[in-house]
Amino acid sequence: MELFEAMETCRAMRYLKPDPIPQEMLERVIHAATRASNPGNSQRWGFVVLRDTDQKRRVQQAVAVAVREMTEMAAAAAEANPDAMDPSSRRILLGAGHLLENLHLAPVIVIVCAHHDYPPGSPPQIEYVYSTVYPASQNLILAARGLGLGTVFTTFNLSCEPQLREILGLPDDVKMGTVIPMGFPERDFGPVTRRPVDEVIHYDRWDPTR
Ligand SMILES: Cc1cc2nc3c(=O)[nH]c(=O)nc-3n(C[C@H](O)[C@H](O)[C@H](O)COP(=O)(O)O)c2cc1C
Question: Is the CB of 189 within 6 Å of ligand 1?
Fold first, then answer.
C-alpha cells in the first residue's frame, strides 16, 4: 500500500475481529516498528506481544477496572444530554467503551516498552524513554495498516501501571509507553479527520493567529 494512503486512512480501529494474525504478519509489523528513529540508535525498546488468552484477560481486567468509571461517567453525561456532544466525540466514546470491555478478544495486544537508561547515567527525570516508544508505536500502527490490520494507539498503561507491571513481569528499569490492540478490523478503514495544513503551519516564526 502506498505510504501516504496508509497515513490518510489509519483510523483508530476499536472494533477488531478475534481471528488470529499470521505469525509472519505479526513479525513484519514488529520489524517495521524496530526501523523507527530512536535516541542515539540505542534501540532500547521491547515489544511485549500478548497472545495468551489468560494474560490478555488479566490486562483487560486491570485496565477496565481503572478506566471503566471514567468512561461510564462520560457515557452517562452524553446519554443525559445527547445534543451537547458532537457525533464524532460520541462515536469515540462508544468505541472506547467497546474496546475497554473487549480488549482481551483482540488476537494480539502489543505493549511497547523501553529501558529507561538513555542517555547512560542520566538522572531519572530525563524521560528519553518516550522518544523511543512513540516513533516505534507509530511505525507499528502504520505497518499494520499497510497489511490490512487494525490497531488503536492507547496509553491504558497510565491508568493501572503497577498492576500491568506485575502481570507482565516488567523489571524496574523498563517503562511501558503504549498499549496497542491489533487485529483484522470489523469496520472499514477510512480517511482520518484532521485540521488542514494551513491552520497549523507557521513559517519562520510562530503565528499567533493560527
Ligand atoms: C497517545 C495516545 C493515546 C490514545 N489513547 C486512547 C485510548 O486510551 N483509547 C482510545 O480508544 N483511543 C486512544 N487514542 C486514539 C485517539 O483517540 C484517536 O487517534 C483520535 O481520536 C483520532 O481518531 P482517528 O485516529 O480514528 O482519526 C490515543 C491516541 C494517542 C496518540
Answer: no
**Among the atoms of ligand 1, which is closest to the Cα of residue 156?**
8
Say if residue 162 is preceded by a cis peptide, omega within 30 of 0: no
Please count the other Cβ atoms lying within 10 Å of the Cβ belonging to residue 86: 9
Q: Which domains does the chain have, with CATH numbers?
A: 3-52+107-200 (3.40.109.10)
Joined together, the cell numbers standing for residue 152 give: 488503536
In single-letter form, the type of residue at position 113 comes to: C
Distances (CA, A) of 107 to 12, 17, 46, 82, 158: 16, 8, 19, 34, 22
Nearest CA to ligand 1 atom 23: 12
Cα angle: 141, vertex 147, 151; to 5 degrees: 30
Specify the residue with its C-alpha closest to ligand 1, atom 20.
Answer: 12
160-210 pLDDT per residue, tens: 999 999 999 999 999 999 999 999 999 999 999 999 999 999 999 999 998
**Helix intervals (H) in 34-128:** 53-80, 87-102
Ligand 1 close to Cβ of residue 154 (< 6 A): yes
Q: Which grid coordinates are listed for 161?
A: 501501571
